[in-house]
Design a protein that fits this description.
The complex is a heterodimer of chains A (260) and B (489). Chain A has 260 residues and is mainly alpha-helical. Chain A contains 9 helices and 2 strands; from the N terminus they run H-H-H-H-E-E-H-H-H-H-H. Helix content of chain B is 35%, strand content 24%. The chains are: A mainly alpha (260), B alpha/beta (489). Chains A and B meet through helix 7 and helix 8 of A and helix 3, helix 11 and helix 12 of B.
């Protein structure tokens, strides 16, 4: 499979997926209510280190994955910086109006977007969907009906990508790869959707034919429990947040504690 | 005698159709029986399997009425499409899914999984990505995960329809080994490897009625003509076909169509196909053979320049750089016909390429009518391409590809999954074009096609064209090939 990337398994991979999900959601909420840019910058640096050192992926791929999120960082930061409001004007040129306040706010927003992206990236790079759903069923009592539907859906993605390529080739050969956006979307969507819908129904029937049901008690092939890695994870993420706060008060980069 | 499965006076109708698929059909099966259901496509054999297993109406809600029904307590069902019966990404997880469903304790699972994989002769590490398996391996995995349920009754719904000959043989070998003590009810169109396994055949007609039911060898002998007319791949189908096939005619004057020299095709900057040197002349029918994943489809894609290539590649003596230019000279037919349909009706589908070339309406109409007739699609001309049957879709995809008059055809397993009738019809159509001077390059797994239709065989191994040899013709055809003057290159 072409989209198979080799990686080294680290403690982040061995953390309980449900715990990882909850803790990361927690950090997400903390960041949402964070208005001190110093803390946010520290947190971003910490998460960046986590991503580049402890996810176990080759640097080449990490940079590739990170690139689109960096673009988001730049675009979010710049739009707020260039057109924001404030009292201390630095540059004014036509529509562009950069003030000290707008710059700080822009940077803050950019870093916030960056931390969200980093959290998501770290989570998805270190969590196999199969383990996640097994863990959700075992720890958070998610109904198997939903868990296995999702997993079946995940299995369809590489098949769909392959089909997309086939349709692309077929349209090229038939000279149908031109025309307006609407026409193009339709030409791709009709064969891809019709295949997927049929396939989804067949898989559903096949799953029930294998006695899948929500009513009977089932066993689990993967027992997902807790281990010392979960302690490591919990401590390091809480430590990261606390350390970010501490460093921000002791060694602030900028003398502003609230950008609002 | 104790019945393990039976229906009495089954009536069933698909929503949106006018007629009943089954009208008072009664059938029953005893323990340990091996039964083959035969009939033309669309007669409802698969539907009957689904009723007998309880999939209808439990999973598929289709209106049905039955006086009495007996569904086996422990059954397993193998479906036709290898890509749409798994819900997990890895082999071990897929088998474990079945084990989980029946509540097997986790500690026993690994042992059971290994045992099941051995039983179906699937020698891969348990934690293998299903996506990397071949179609035949996927179907054996499907068999393994069904066996995990420890069924007494096995329903096999055309398990080999999407497999090549080798895969088909392996599936039936496996079934014979594991199912001798089980009741097996089979729907199948390719019955060569099944006939010596089943002891009873039930024969259906177009209207979903049972026309014959009895001992396999007797039914097969007494109803052979009916079986043949339904397009079923029975043993000896090729011999019967060859008796009435006309001798191959010469295609007349020769012209060089393709010239390849140190030609390479790349995927992800890696050379995936290499052709040291090769030529194709008009009137040649070249079959490209080789193992799964050897690079046959990649080769066709390289010839269309759908992937990056380098080296010498000339079509009619000129170098064509773009897919668009090549498509004017080459008709390309994909393995799955649905992906190449771009319009909403059969008529428009045929007219499409001609419209692109801005031919006048009168000319388009004449040409379309001509091909509709030739490919037996006249009555379907208003239908949406997706509503056609398997055979009709295939014919339409070929007709639409060749309509602008190309003299060079590239076909990627065009007879794949087709019944005997449709296969012969398609091969004859292609042969008639060859006789008029077209050159055909076709990927296939079917040795019979190689033997009876090809003039030359190219063998691809590990991404390289390793052999280029004329095909030895049968006695009757041999005289002709000598006339055509082949030489080993």
């Amino acid at each position: 499979m072409r989209w198979d990337i080799r990686y080294r398994e680290t403690w982040l991979h061995r953390t309980n997926p449900s715990l990882k999900l909850l803790v990361m959601t927690g950090v997400f909420i903390v960041v949402l209510f964070l208005h001190n840019p110093n803390v946010l910058i520290n947190l971003s640096i910490g998460l960046l280190l986590l991503l580049f050192i402890y996810t176990g992926y080759p640097l080449k791929y990490l940079v590739l994955f990170f690139l689109p999120f960096f673009v988001i960082f730049v675009s979010t930061a710049s739009s707020m910086t260039l057109f924001g409001q404030g009292t201390t004007t630095w540059v004014q040129w036509g529509l562009v109006h950069i003030t000290k306040e707008s710059f700080l706010r822009g940077m803050h927003l950019g870093f916030r977007a960056l931390t969200f992206a980093l959290l998501g990236l770290i989570f998805s790079l270190t969590t196999r969907p199969v383990y996640l759903f097994y863990s959700l069923m075992q720890q958070l009592k998610l109904k198997p009906k939903y868990a296995y539907s999702f997993l079946a859906g995940v299995r369809l993605i590489p098949i769909m990508l392959e089909e997309f390529q086939t349709v692309q080739n077929a349209l090229k050969v038939r000279g149908a790869d031109h025309g307006g956006v609407f026409k193009k979307v339709k030409r791709y969507a009709v064969p891809l959707l019709s295949q997927s819908i049929r396939r989804a129904q067949r898989i559903a029937v096949a799953m029930e034919a294998k006695r899948f049901s929500d009513t009977t008690k089932r066993t689990f092939y993967y027992h997902i429990g807790f281990s010392r890695y979960d302690v490591v994870f919990l401590v390091s993420l809480i430590g990261l947040v606390v350390l970010s706060y501490y460093m921000a008060t002791v060694f602030p980069y900028i003398p502003v504690t609230d950008v609002r | 005698m104790e019945y393990v499965a039976s229906v009495e006076q089954l009536r069933l109708k698909f929503p949106g159709t006018d007629t009943l698929l089954f009208k008072d059909v009664s059938v029953s099966f005893t323990k340990g029986e091996k039964v083959l259901l035969l009939g033309p496509s669309g007669c409802g054999k698969s539907t009957l399997l689904q009723v007998l297993s309880g999939i209808i109406p439990h999973s598929l809600d289709i209106p049905m009425k039955v006086k009495h029904i007996r569904i086996p307590t422990n059954w397993g069902y193998v479906f036709q499409d290898p890509d749409s019966q798994f819900c997990m990404p890895f082999v071990d997880e897929e088998i474990a899914f079945a084990l989980e469903n029946i509540g097997v304790p986790r500690e026993q699972m690994n042992e059971r999984i290994e045992h099941l994989l051995r039983a179906v002769d699937l020698s891969v590490p348990p934690h293998t990505n299903i996506h990397t398996l071949s179609g035949g391996m996927k179907q054996r995995l499907a068999l393994a995960s069904v066996l995990a349920l420890e069924p007494d009754v096995l329903f096999l719904d055309e398990p080999t329809a999407m497999l090549d000959d080798e895969g088909t043989k392996l599936i039936w070998q496996t079934v014979k080994r594991i199912a001798h003590d089980k009741t097996v009810i089979i729907v199948e169109h390719k019955i060569e490897h099944v006939l010596d396994f089943v002891d009873r055949i039930i024969l259906f007609n177009d209207a979903g009625e049972i026309v014959a039911d009895g001992e396999a060898s007797i039914i097969f002998r007494t109803h052979k003509e009916l079986i043949a007319s339904q397009g079923i791949w029975y043993p000896g189908v090729w011999d019967d076909y060859l008796k009435q096939k006309k001798a191959r005619a010469d295609s007349g004057e020769r012209q060089e169509v393709i010239h390849l020299h140190h030609f390479r095709g790349y995927r992800n900057k890696e050379a995936k196909i290499y052709v040291p040197t090769a030529r194709v002349q008009s009137g040649e029918w070249i079959v490209v053979t080789g193992k799964n994943g050897a690079g046959k489809s990649t080769f066709l894609h390289a010839l269309m320049r759908l992937i990056p290539t380098d080296g010498e590649y000339e079509v009619y003596g000129t170098r064509l750089e773009q897919t668009k230019q090549l498509a004017r000279q080459i008709a390309f037919v994909f393995q799955n016909p649905e992906f190449q349909f771009v319009t909403n009706s059969v008529w428009e589908e045929l007219a499409y390429s001609l419209r692109l070339e801005k031919r006048n309406e009168q000319e388009i109409a004449t040409k379309v009518e001509e091909l509709l007739k030739l490919f037996h699609l006249e009555t379907q001309q208003e239908q949406h391409p997706y509503q056609l049957s398997m055979g009709q879709k295939r014919r339409l995809s070929v007709a639409a590809a060749i309509i602008s008059g190309q003299k060079l055809f590239l076909l990627d397993e065009p007879t794949f999954g087709q019944d005997a009738k449709n296969t012969f019809a398609l091969l004859e159509l292609l042969e008639s074009y060859r006789e008029q001077g077209a050159a055909i390059i076709m990927v296939t797994h079917d040795e019979q096609i190689v033997k009876h239709f090809a003039t030359r065989r190219w063998v691809i191994e590990n991404g390289q064209l390793v052999r280029d040899e004329p095909v030895t013709q049968t006695e009757r055809e041999r005289g002709l090939s000598r006339e055509m003057g082949y030489s080993l290159s």
